[in-house]
């Protein structure tokens, strides 16, 4: 039972604004602004900000780039190929409406031109 309580206490270690800023290596005012905006997990209890250490570590981990989480690959793969790509843009490019109409097989009608006269 004592071991469990000790583990729970360590898991719920709280930090002050200054301690949390030191952990995140940012200025306390920046941390306060980000916590107030909800970007970084924290709570204002009375006049003081309180941060749970585990939440801040999870926040740091969430900022890792996807590649770092998956592990760096030792081999560098070349992603270029000789495959042809479809050109987009310009006047000969099909519109999204045309694509949707073809996929959904919706009846289409021609759009009327401008009805304003000079």
Please give the structural blueprint.
Blueprint: H1 2-11, E1 14-15, H2 17-24, H3 28-37, E2 43-45, E3 48-52, H4 53-62, H5 66-70, H6 96-104
Antiparallel strand pairs: 1-3, 2-3
Helix pairs in contact: 2-3
Characterize the structure shown.
This protein has 118 residues and is mostly helical. The chain has a domain at 2-67: Multidrug-efflux Transporter Regulator, Chain: A, Domain 2 (Orthogonal Bundle). It has 6 helices and 3 strands; from the N terminus they run H-E-H-H-E-E-H-H-H. A 3-stranded antiparallel beta sheet has the order 1-3-2.
Main attributes of the structure:
elongated; Multidrug-efflux Transporter Regulator, Chain: A, Domain 2; 6 helices; 118 residues; 3 strands; mainly alpha; 44% helix; three-stranded antiparallel beta sheet
- What is the distance, rounded to the nearest whole angstrom, between the alpha carbons of the first and last residues? 88 Å
For the biggest β-sheet, the strand order reads: 1-3-2
**What shape does the CA trace take?**
elongated
Q: The biggest beta sheet, please?
A: 3 strands, antiparallel
CATH topology of the domain at 2-67: Multidrug-efflux Transporter Regulator, Chain: A, Domain 2
* Percent of residues in helices: 40-55%
Question: Could you spell the SSE succession in H and E letters?
Answer: HEHHEEHHH
Strand content: 5-15%
CATH architecture of the domain at 2-67: Orthogonal Bundle
Structural class: mainly alpha
CATH domain class of the domain at 2-67: Mainly Alpha
């Amino acid at each position: 039972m004592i071991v469990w309580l000790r583990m729970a206490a360590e898991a719920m270690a709280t930090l002050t604004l200054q301690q949390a800023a030191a952990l995140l290596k940012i200025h306390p005012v920046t941390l306060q602004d980000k916590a107030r905006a909800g970007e970084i997990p924290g709570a204002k209890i009375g006049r003081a900000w309180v941060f749970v250490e585990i939440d801040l570590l999870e926040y740091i981990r969430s900022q890792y780039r996807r590649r770092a989480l998956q592990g760096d690959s030792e081999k560098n793969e070349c992603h270029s190929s000789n495959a042809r790509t479809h050109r987009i843009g310009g006047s000969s490019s099909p519109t999204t409406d045309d694509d949707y109409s073809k996929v959904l097989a919706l009846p289409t009608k021609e759009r009327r031109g401008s009805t304003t006269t000079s």
